[in-house]
Specification:
293 residues, alpha/beta, Arginase, Chain A, eight-stranded parallel beta sheet, two-stranded antiparallel sheet, 10 strands
Length: 293
């Protein structure tokens, strides 16, 4: 890692010579949008917090034996929020991500509330076709509507289902009756956190439930609050860091992953949580460049 006064204002502090858009293979797209959060707030500050913390992350990843110090990762300008409606913001995210995906880039979105995933998934699907979406989360987000809108963060995976994608849910531990009925009626694969706490056998089953191409959406409340507690709706009993990393490594090794996002971090000044989210984003970028099939 370079000296602090020389760290560029990019993801991981990657120098401009390596982070140019034209030559990039991965694009980090900050989306500081928050309009439908229903408990804690602050996810609009999540992207900036992740980017700031990422510049303190060591670029060498000993688990993958790769160094991202001069990796072809471009940090895009943050997408300006459109508060006209959540659906209007979905359209803006779709258009913003599409220009990178159509150019052959692997997009890593940084939210923002979880509703941002729909626009990112639409952009990936335009190029790659219908997706299997791996959702790591404390909540299913399969409600049809919530607090008067079908575009709430609590409905994002329902909208993905409606658009023809397969969804696989990991780390779940808080569900409403409507969602439980939908999971049963549509045979949606769900790996509840309590099951994941027993042993790691669930990881291979989760990977097997996915078909190419795969999109990964990682709500940070999928992790236990001992890892990240600064999120809008924290839940006890989440995934540990290492099982979550093992899941990601196996998914990238065995499936064709075409994009990802990290969402729902509240930029609340908690260095441990912000650093963990930055480490997570760095791991996803490293796997996109070096761990994919």
């Amino acid at each position: 890692m370079t000296e602090p006064d020389h760290i560029p204002q990019t993801f991981l502090g990657i120098p401009a010579s390596a982070a140019a858009r034209a030559s990039a293979r991965v694009v980090v797209l900050p989306i500081p949008f928050e309009a439908t959060t229903s408990y804690g707030s602050g996810t609009r500050d999540g992207p900036a917090a992740i980017l700031a913390a990422s510049r303190q992350v060591e670029t060498y990843d000993p688990d993958l034996d790769v160094d991202l110090a001069e990796a072809p990762i471009h940090t895009a300008a943050p997408l300006a929020p459109d508060f006209t409606s959540p659906s209007a913001m979905t359209d803006r995210i779709h258009a913003g991500a599409r220009r990178f995906v159509a150019d052959g880039k692997w997009v890593l979105g940084l939210g923002g509330e979880h509703s941002v995933t729909l626009g990112l998934a639409r952009a990936a699907a335009e190029v790659h076709g219908p997706l299997s979406i791996l959702q790591i989360d404390a909540h299913l987000d399969l409600r049809d509507t919530f607090e008067g809108t079908p575009h709430s963060h609590a409905c994002v995976m329902r909208r993905c289902l409606d658009e023809g994608h397969r969804t696989v849910h990991v780390g779940i531990r808080n569900v409403c009756r409507e969602e439980a009925d939908l999971v049963r009626d549509r045979d949606v694969p769900v790996f509840y956190a309590r099951e994941c706490a027993g042993d790691d056998a669930w990881i291979d089953r989760a990977v097997q439930a996915l078909a190419d191409p795969v999109y990964v959406t990682f709500d940070v409340d999928g992790l236990d609050p001992s890892v990240i507690r600064t999120t809008g709706t924290p839940e006890p009993g989440g995934l540990g860091w290492w099982p979550a990393m093992t899941l990601l490594e196996r998914v990238f090794a065995r499936r064709r992953v075409v994009g990802a996002d990290v969402v729902e971090l509240c930029g609340a000044g908690d260095r441990a949580g912000e650093f963990a989210a930055a480490r997570l984003a760095a791991r996803l970028a490293a796997l996109a460049l070096h761990g994919s099939t």
